[in-house]
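seq as requested:
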Amino acid sequence: MFKALHARIFQKYRTNKFPDAAPKLPPHFCGRPVFDPELYDPELWGKSAEVCPVDAVNAGKKSIDLGKCIFCGKCAKVNKAITFSNEYRMGAMSRDKLIADGTAYTPEEQLDAGIKALYGQSLHIRQVSAGGCAACELDFNVLGTLAWDMGRFGIKVVASPRHADAILVTGPITDNMRLALQKSYDAMGEPKLVIACGACAISGGIYQHSEHAAGGVENILPVDLYVPGCPPHPATLLEALVRFIGRRQLDNQA
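struct tokens:
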């Protein structure tokens, strides 16, 4: 007991100040892209579309689909009009909100009173890895550590879909995992939520054209929350979850 108390006093409070304060992001972090209209060049936008490995860049509409984007930054290297900002708040409650088109961006606020009432104080999640590479899974697991402690918002991981309010899906939903995902969803009680975490789960990511992948969760199940990234940064994922349940409106800027 003495050793435990001593360790606690020595370590002090280890949970970071996020979301009351913006997270400390690495120098190479690529957040929501922004576009400089003064530097617009149709030829360069065309090159950006050509080098994009996941067809996320739409040169004609001067937009980037964050649901497909793996944030590799190749488009920005050939097109000086594109810059990946430090805006980590990219979670969206509708698929069309993942299209970055250069217009002013404000994260969606949860307006569904039912979701706020049911899940505002408690959200139990069952994570389903549907053929993922483990990157999204690992960054989701990070949220359970002392540094992030998503439990302080009432968000917890459960072992069975029968105990879950939501399933958080990662991976492109391979043929071998399609049935397991469907069974997990069917085992949940009503009402039930689906969270698509990462490019693979949202659009298929780099496997979007594979004949052995579903090309995104929404081709199988209704999706309530999309969290883009490859993988999503822990701050992106936690902020999206907290905002989704209407626990609080986050005003801090990256």
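The helical segments are 2-11, 42-51, 74-78, 113-119, 135-142, 175-187, 199-203, 234-244.
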